[in-house]
Specification:
The chain is mostly helical and about 270 residues long. The chain has 13 helices and no strands. Helix 1 crosses helix 7 and helix 4 runs antiparallel to helix 11. The two termini are about 20 Å apart.
Length: about 270
Amino acid sequence: MKAILKMELIRAFRNKLMFFSLISGCGIVIMYYIFSVTKYIKSFYSILNSDIASDPLSANLCWIGTAYDRYTVLYFFIIPILAAIPYGASLYMDKKDGYINNILIKTDRKNYFFAKLITYFISGGVIATIPLILSYILAIISLPSIRPYAEYSLYNIYSVNIFSNIFYSNYTFVYIIIFIVFDFILFGLINCLCMVFTYWEENRFAIVLTPFIICYGLHMVGQYFIGTDKTPLTYARLNVVSSEDLIYIIGELLILVLLAIVSLRKGKKDVL
């Protein structure tokens, strides 16, 4: 099991498409830093050098996770595609090229498909969160990490939002970790949809686009036809999630887990 998992992780991470996805995600973060964060920096030092009393600007305000900006919208909009590009069509290509038959001679079918599923999850999570980590690093080296206070009304996090009590405390960094870990799990599971739909879709590019089509489709249907934004694309920005939404988050994560289990069981029984 360890050998096949190691081999699949190498296939996922040592390829040009992984480099492309990470560069693209980090590129959005850098654009956000250049065109948005620099404005915060200028404001911070102009206030610092004046006698005007003002709410303190903080690194916790201007990283791409909790900010609301066109680059934030773009980032969370495009991540399902970027996460799927390096490895999304891997199972499809293994079946098409006959590679899977050679592998299954050397290893158990269960181990192969389980290693595939784990690699889908890890690769999707890594691509989604590395740019977030970069954004926070750029923020904390540019602005002080001042403890946020709800009274300042600077932040897009309110008392009704989940984990707001942690954000407005001396442990704001814990909130950032929770945010990033949650996005790792969410986009990791979303990326597993590629494996799920490999059994029904015969087009490589359609498989790669599946997570984006489902996420964006749910978002559009929910927002414009049902009148709700309780969708994965919304919940990816944990700072806008209210405590009442927790049941919906758990439900959607469970559905994604069940779909991943279905793909695993399907793989074990699949006739090659």
